[in-house]
Amino acid sequence: MVDALLKCGVDMNATDRVLLQSCKPCLHTNVDCTALVAAVVSRQISSVRLLLAAGVRTDVKVQLGAWSWDMASGEEFRVGAGLAEPYPITWCAVEYFESTGAILHLLLQYISPNTPHHGRTLLHHAILCGNAGATKVLLKCGAHIETPVITTQNTQFRPIHMAARLGLTTILQCLIDSVCDLNSKTEAGETALMICVKYKQEECLKVLARAGADFGLVNIGGQSASSIAGSCGCYLGFQQALLDVIRNGKVPTSSNISVFSPLLFVARSGDVLGLKALIGQGDIDLDKQDERGFSAVMVTAKEGHVDAFRLLVYAGADVKLCNKSRGNCYYTV
Asked: How many helices (H) does the chain have, and how many strands (E)?
């Protein structure tokens, strides 16, 4: 039908009032729009392909979005479908995503995924919508993975920071698989790891820890991921999530042992399975001391973790080491 109408000379760029409907996001409204917009919202792949091949205009904007954001702070608001500011057709294809990604892929052959809109790109919008499928299509089509959200207050955060804050593990893994910078920082010096701790996103913490995110970094306030967990009152969740990763054979990365030491972290928890996993790696220095001179075996003695203490001693930890107060394991107990 579309092909026949085009051959009859119908104006493909004409605007008319059409009832647009969608289950996800929920939409049932009359909108003045072009045929291309109607086809995108209705997920009509063949119609979109025909219209694009015929030369339909793609520089149209439509007011169908469900998300808005503050240009000053970058804070996002879900306002409901059709209530956000008008946006380009590719943004519409992200929000009203067709499951195979064909429509978005077709449009990206005509429009760059990196064209900014109110300080954001399509990749930021796909993450905000929690759309892993659209994220994968955009990354395959050349979306810049490190482009920050730009605000008038100079608040800057990247796609990985958004995914960590929103708890989107699948999208976070997509970004990691596309070799994003795991340890990139916001204007406050926060990494994705710190952000997911701050927002209590334990599953994202696991994803980042398994990928090798650095636990030894600090923000501009001198806080690490571990200290943020303590100040936010979520240390137990942080501890359990990280212990799960360690028990499965992954040693957390730390570029600064004085900020975070995997061995001392596990020793403080007294988790025997975690200790066994670390010791089994073979390249762990059991006698490494922190800035106060405490080794893992001293920590277990101080905390009263008998089984963990026994395991370290049998593994060869030196019980005669002294800390900076000239105390050893016996003194600590």
From this structure: 18, 6
